[in-house]
Structure formats: structure tokens, C-alpha cells
Input
Amino acid sequence: EAQVTQNPRYLITVTGKKLTVTCSQNMNHEYMSWYRQDPGLGLRQIYYSMNVEVTDKGDVPEGYKVSRKEKRNFPLILESPSPNQTSLYFCASSPWTGGYEQYFGPGTRLTVT
Amino acid sequence: AQKVTQAQTEISVVEKEDVTLDCVYETRDTTYYLFWYKQPPSGELVFLIRRNSFDEQNEISGRYSWNFQKSTSSFNFTITASQVVDSAVYFCALSEANAQGGSEKLVFGKGTKLTVNP
Output
């Protein structure tokens, strides 16, 4: 089944404790992206990657890191999480850019206390 | 800079009513793409439709229809004869093309929460 998976789905952590949210897609998509969703703000893009080893900042990259060492994986790293990073995070992929629809993962709900 | 405005934060209707969700966008590009996504209470994001800036034809898919008007920078979404299962948050999104014809950023509106009551 074609899908984007994220792990974990739920995470409660404490300020400053490094964490990684994994994202994997099995559709051989070139493009992958991370978003955060906050009440009243919609979805905002954090980082995106147009291919292996190619990543770039979205609208809200502060406090996050990403890597794209393999085509299928695009982990989101929070080196020192803070409470303002409490949010619902979505990973997405698409075959390429140029207006293809993005396929979204199920979301990861992160709480930083 | 690209921007998407969904002025309706919440809409509540009774089943079988028609409802239109508004989307107004801003972009300086002549080539861009517009999308609608649905987020039901279960939380996943479901793709509904994509439109490129050169295709102003309206589209109908079952009870769903979309009205794209470049003159008013709008891409409105209408649900005919709404059903309880249509209850969800609906997002409009915009993607601008880069020099190579691709696009990197997808900018979302803040969403419209639709509640369809029985």
C-alpha cells in the first residue's frame, strides 16, 4: 500500500531533550516536506527536500533540523525542544514539484513540557 | 509573497444545505497551483483537487464543485446537499512555480471548519 508513515504518532517530552520524528514513504517520491499545524494558524511548512542531500527551509525552520540521506526517509530533528514546539506535525511527499498533490502522513502529536 | 486567505473560520449548516467555502489567494507569479485538502475529525489530510493557473475551467466531482476565478483571485469550493460526513476542516493551499516550472513551497490558508448537523 502506497503510504507515508510517521513515528511516533504521539510523544510527550521535556524541554531540552533531543528527539527525532521519523518519516518514510514507499512511493519513490522525490519531494518530501514537513509541516506543523497549530490552532488558528493552519499548516506551516518547516523544511522541504527536493531530492537526496537537498534540503531547504520553509516558513518556520527555527529550532528544527532535517536530513535526507535516503530517498524514502526524511526525519525531523528537534535538538533542544521547547514548549512552543508543541504541535501536530505532518510529513508529506509528492512525485516531484510542479504542482503535484502531496501525500500526507498520519501526523505526530508532540507535547513539550 | 504568496498568501492564502480563508475568511470563514467556522461554518455550520444543516444536512442537505449547499455550502460554499471561500478561498482568496495572492501571488505575483503567472504560473501557480491551487489545492483543496480535507481534514476530517480523525486528523488525516485528504487531497481533494488541484488546479493550475492556466486552467480556469470549473470542476465538478459528485457533490463537490470548484469555481476558479483569476479575475478575483479566488478558488471557492461548494458542497451541494451537504452530509454529516462532510464535517471537517477544509484547507485551501497555493504553490508557486519556480524558474524550472517546479515548486517548493506549499502555503496553506488557516482552514474553514465545516459542521454539518443532522
